[in-house]
Specification:
This protein is an alpha+beta fold. The protein is 71% helix and 9% strand. The chain has helices at residues 2-94, 98-119, 168-189; strands at residues 126-129, 143-145, 152-156, 163-167. A 4-stranded mixed beta sheet has the order 2-1-3-4. The chain is rod-shaped and about 155 Å long.
Length: 193
């Protein structure tokens, strides 16, 4: 009987050890599972942050590209409107009443003649003027009709290598560097800063 008691005690001890081993294994499994879940959560958070950062970068790049395109479009529209304004200004000079236009044309002629005499003393220029304007100039110089000249006069050397121009279009072109920013400010900076 002592043997039965010993066997029973050993069986009880074995069951207790097996139960402890099962509990420890279950706890170890739960701990490993919890650690795996935590690692998965950390990895998911890390990837989510990386994805969020990448998406923010892409969003910023797209936003900057859109802003650049919008600024370019706005600038294109502004410059187009300013260009139309300058063309309209040239048309208005051409459509001045005849006495005012004659005065303007003779003034442009006188300024160009003074510049020519200063730069090319003793040389007579060929004076190019629009055919419609030939009767409006008061000069003893020979005039040559040229349809390419609008609202102004052009002096050229007899061989055509030197050309001085004093037309409304040339003046507007020279003044563009100063006028365009000023017109832009007047027309747009108040409305679209």
């Amino acid at each position: 009987m002592a043997e039965d008691t010993l066997i029973a005690a050993l069986e009880e001890d074995a069951r207790a050890q097996a139960a402890r081993i099962l509990i420890e294994a279950r706890e170890a499994g739960e701990a490993a599972l919890a650690e795996a879940r935590a690692q998965i959560e950390r990895e998911r958070d890390k990837r989510a942050r990386e994805l969020e950062a990448r998406l923010k970068g892409q969003r910023a790049a797209l936003l900057n590209a859109a802003r650049t395109r919008a600024s370019g479009s706005r600038l294109g529209v502004r410059l187009g409107l300013i260009g139309r304004l300058l063309i309209e200004a040239e048309k208005r000079f051409s459509s001045l009443p005849e006495d005012e236009y004659r005065h303007l044309l003779n003034r442009l002629f006188s300024e160009l003649k003074a510049e020519w005499e200063k730069e090319r003393p003793g040389e007579s220029p060929v004076v190019l003027v629009n055919p419609a304007d030939t009767g409006l100039l008061e000069t003893s110089l020979t005039l040559k009709a040229d349809k390419g000249v609008r609202a102004g006069v052009v002096f050229a050397s007899t061989d055509g290598t030197v050309r001085f121009e004093n037309t409304v279009q040339a003046r507007l072109s020279k003044g563009k560097a100063v006028m365009v920013p000023a017109i832009n400010k007047i027309l747009f900076d108040e409305v679209f800063p």
